[in-house]
Specification:
two-stranded parallel sheet, 10% strand, 29% helix, alpha+beta, Schlafen_AlbA_2_dom
């Protein structure tokens, strides 16, 4: 299932996390998203959206290619 993400008038996401939708501010700590990705893989799938603060505001992702590489490495080292 894919969510169409929407925002309110203040720019915050209106979609709340669920068992198939999770938000992360960044991937600087790869152990954070790994359990979520494994759960998505073992279930009906899901979406991990990077660049969202705890208050559902959208934030800048610093060096996204580096974060992607860290996530890939964490899978290889498991």
């Amino acid at each position: 299932m894919y969510y169409a993400l929407t925002t309110d008038s203040s720019g915050k996401l209106t979609n709340h996390e669920s068992k198939t939708l999770e938000y992360k501010r960044d991937l600087s700590h790869p152990q954070g998203p790994l359990p979520t990705l494994v759960a998505f893989a073992n279930a009906a799938g899901g979406q991990l959206v990077v660049g969202v603060n705890h208050d559902l505001s959208i934030c800048d992702v610093k060096d996204p290619l580096r974060q992607e590489e860290c996530l890939e490495l964490s899978f290889l080292l498991k």
